Amino acid sequence: MMISIEKLSIQNAASLFQFEVYNRAFFEKSVPSRGDAYYQYDHFLRGLQALLDEQAQGISFFGLIKNSQGDILGRMNLVDIEKDEGIGHLGYRVGEDTAGKGVASQALKIFLAEHVPQLAVKTICAKTTTDNISSQKVLLKNGFEPYDMGLETPDDFLHFHLGVQRVR
To answer: What pTM was estimated for this model as a whole?
Structure first.
């Protein structure tokens, strides 16, 4: 399957909203709910504008995983970019219809090669819930290494990181 990562824009609002609504139950099986308000279009648009403002400031990058027909298959984001430290935090999700088909792995590979070099980060951090084996495999397949947060930030997640100089 041919996919690409497209930078989020306001023109994607309606199709992204449909994607999120369609996949809500699927997403909420593995990640905390975004709440009922998120699925009201006016609220969604306000949230989307806030994301676009962050993206314009260079503190986040929000990408849409799309197939060759332009359908949204998922999202790939780098958020909380700490420019001084050169650290960004990865988040991604793929819809139920494409889960388990290698889309997330392929999208992350594209994201690392095509978008990360322009984002001025040296290290990408990621975390998954302990039972999200699929996400753990996606990260490991793309060169992320697990690390122990120790007492730094105790939580119920598995943490991973990738040195960007390794991305080629």
So the answer is: 0.90
